[in-house]
Amino acid sequence: MRLINRKPSRIGAFALGLVPFVAAILAYAIASHYRRLDNPADKLLPSLGDMGAAFTRLAFQPDRRSGDYILWVDTFDSLARLGGGMGVSVLLALSLGCLIGFIPHVRASLAPFIATFSLVPPITVLPILFIMFGLGELSKIMLIVVGTAPVMIRSTAQAVMEIPRELIIKAETLGASVWQMMLRVVLPQILPKLITAIRLGLVPAWIFLISAEAIASTSGLGYRIFLVRRYLAMDVILPYVVWITLIAFLLDRLLLMLSRRAFPWHHLGGASL
């Protein structure tokens, strides 16, 4: 049997997936060990033990000044901003995307503007957002919206336009109004693709969130990373990077699980990444 036709078992696939992670950890541990042999006080590549101790201190020991558990406060604040920004983007994508994709006059009016606006680098408008909305939470949420909503709107509109025309004609033949077709034909068809758009939108959303927190914030995962960088505290920075990656991975898997449970017909063609 050819290699392209061989599929690993579930246990085999899990083991193969672990190999790159284990190799990366081993490579880091070896590099850190040899670097610290030359300079035990080296901060660039802290040992796994040092990073574990720093993570434990931030997660389970209250801060001496505030009494807060820093890791959890930072995580909560960042997730609140991320959730607020992505929530607004999803509402915009669902409403404007459906209208642009389904109604030709709306598409002719808004599609060129949305397409042009989606090409604006969001980081370049961050100073404008700070001037308009201040340095509080709203400007950070708006940066996520500006960075993710236009692309999600275009993706949703494209999904609407890809709905087979036969379904629309059948609904019209049965006397359905535009509103009924939106609810009973368009919405069920695009929801799984909207979840995919959310999964893809989370990647730039994290970038914009960390950027905004690094520039103007007093809490959050991005704020903490850029706060301790002046002390070369890699034993804090690296665990925070891993923690952010883990949260992002879990969010992505939860959305994929939701899509598979709610829309199993959408995943019949094969495995979803």
Structure description:
With 273 residues, the chain is an all-alpha fold. The protein has 2 domains: 9-43; 46-263, MetI-like (MetI-like fold), CATH 1.10.3720. Helices cover 75% and strands 0% of the residues. The chain has 10 helices and no strands. It has helices at residues 10-38, 48-60, 70-102, 104-117, 126-133, 137-161, 165-173, 178-215, 221-228, 234-262. The two termini are 25 Å apart. The mean pLDDT is 89.
Task: Outline the fold blueprint.
Blueprint: H1 10-38, H2 48-60, H3 70-102, H4 104-117, H5 126-133, H6 137-161, H7 165-173, H8 178-215, H9 221-228, H10 234-262
Helix pairs in contact: 2-10, 3-4, 3-6, 3-8, 3-9, 4-6, 5-6, 6-8, 8-9, 8-10, 9-10
List keywords for this structure.
273 residues; 75% helix; mainly alpha; MetI-like fold; 10 helices; 2 domains
Query: What share of residues are in beta strands?
Result: under 5%
CATH topology type of the largest domain: MetI-like fold
Helix content: over 70%
Radius of gyration, CA atoms, in whole angstroms: 23 Å
Brief digest:
75% of the residues lie in helices and 0% in strands. It is mostly helical.
